[in-house]
Amino acid sequence: MPIPKLDNETILLAFAAVTGLAVLLQTIILLVISLAVRKALGNLRQELEQLRSSVMPVIYDTRDLVANTQGNLANMQTFLAEAQAFLGSTQAFFTRVGPKVELATNNVAQITGTLRAQTAELQAEAQELIERVQRQSKRVDGMTTEFLDTVDRAGSFVSYSVGKPVQQISRVLRSAKAIVDSLRGARA
């Protein structure tokens, strides 16, 4: 079994294929990262909705309490106690949610940095691939032009080589016909 010859064209084609696969792999990785960011943002929205659902009733209750207790000092003390409880629960909520928000922010920043780096890498790879393709197209164009010029020269040579003897044979046959016609004419 013969060993395939590894010339520059084969090697460049292999490199182009590997580069294309690398670009495809990077695209898949970027898509996965994008989906992870989208999921993280969804979780963050859900946490904010939970915050809203737990804070808004307290705000509404506080507003109702203020409306009901205007002018009543005893009710104001109750309001202050409830407000203090509300502030305590709000502080506890922020204490619980704060690290998650900070972690999500850090994750988004890291993902953004990674996306920027991979985008720059992808652009560099794409530019290199485009340059390689352009060089190969110029090379193929030169080879095709050279081949067609050679075919044209070969056709001219064959036309000249075959056409010249055919013209000579044609002249000889016309001469022979003229002689035969003149001999027939002399007999008549």
Write up this protein.
The protein is an all-alpha fold and 188 residues long. It has one domain. Helix content is 94%, strand content 0%. It has helices at residues 8-68, 73-187. Helix 1 (8-68) runs antiparallel to helix 2. The longest helix has 115 residues, at 73-187. It is rod-shaped.
Q: Would you kindly provide a brief summary of this structure?
A:
This protein has 188 residues and is mainly alpha-helical. The protein has two helices and no strands.
User: Beta-strand level of the residues, as a percent range?
Assistant: under 5%
Estimate the helix proportion, in percent. Answer: over 70%
Poorly predicted tracts of residues? none
Question: Would you tell me the overall average pLDDT?
Answer: 85
**Distance between termini?**
78 Å
Count of DSSP H/I helices = 2
Give the total of beta strands. 0
Total number of domains: 1
Instruction: Give the overall silhouette.
Output: rod-shaped
Largest sheet: none
Provide the structure class. mainly alpha
**N-to-C SSE series?**
HH
SSE layout:
Elements lengths: L7 H61 L4 H115 L1
Helix pairs in contact: 1-2
Task: Based on the model shown, name its key terms.
single chain, 188 residues, mainly alpha, 0% strand
